Amino acid sequence: MKIVCITPIKHLNGLLEKMRTYGTVVYKPEITKNELVQLLENDNKINCIFCNPNKQNYILDKFVLSNSRVRVIHTASTGLNHIDLDICKKFNIKIVSLTNDFDLIEKLPSTSELSFGIMLCLLRKIPQSFDAVKLGYWDYEPFIGHELASLKVGIVGYGRLGKIMAHYCNAFGMKVYVCDPYKQVSDYSQISLKEVAKLCHVISLHVHVSDNTKYM
């Protein structure tokens, strides 16, 4: 097997070495779409792509795959909106993702941690106050923001990430509401999307991109 890795993995201890036990690895974490097309056309021994939508800013589509020998796409994600699934089916390319690897993804809270961190920064104006202090300004009044314990948060999508986010918000004293038409929620108050928009100070989306959720 010859693998082209188009996402950074050197920060993950031992992963690149582990990947090399399966075959030759071409490590190109900064490769553009046009460069990937050229690489796949020029090297017909590459039969596997390892990717991640957090880094990749283009879709693996017909333009990329039509003149390649790729037979497997591994993605270090649960979402698949960075891969043209219809084209992969047409070209008989297998997709391997984390979507159904429940034992593994239950141990990965990083996305929820970042979501909570961004919310905290926005509500408490942490980046702005940090920049002001670096410039020598110590007046806290412009950066008071909002205490989390005084706010209501609406969690839209109560899967793995939504549950973790709800847990973090609850730990900070926020009133948590959940909107998920596909699940019965007993831990928190379950309300409709319209009610979330009406009641909540903060709305946190934790849904896969699909025809039903696009432009939500």
Terminus-to-terminus distance: 40 Å
Q: Can you tell me the number of structural domains? A: 2
Name the helicity range: 25-40%
- CATH superfamily of the largest domain, by name, is NAD(P)-binding Rossmann-like Domain
Biggest sheet descriptor: 5 strands, parallel
Q: What order do the strands of the largest sheet run in, or round the barrel if closed?
A: 2-1-3-4-5
| CATH class label of the largest domain | Alpha Beta
Strand content: 15-25%
Mean pLDDT: 92
- This entry's quaternary arrangement is single chain
What's the shape? globular
Number of continuous helical runs: 9
Instruction: Give helix and strand order, one letter per element, not per position.
Output: EHEHEHEHEHHHEHEEHE
The structural class is: alpha/beta
CATH architecture of the largest domain: 3-Layer(aba) Sandwich
Integer-rounded radius of gyration:
21 Å
Q: Kindly report the CATH topology of the largest domain.
A: Rossmann fold
Poorly predicted ranges: none
How many strands appear in the DSSP assignment? 9
Organism: marine metagenome
Family: Belongs to the D-isomer specific 2-hydroxyacid dehydrogenase family.
Domain D-isomer specific 2-hydroxyacid dehydrogenase catalytic: 17-97
InterPro entries: D-isomer_2_OHA_DH_cat_dom, D-isomer_DH_CS1, D-isomer_DH_NAD-bd, D-LDH-like, NAD(P)-bd_dom_sf
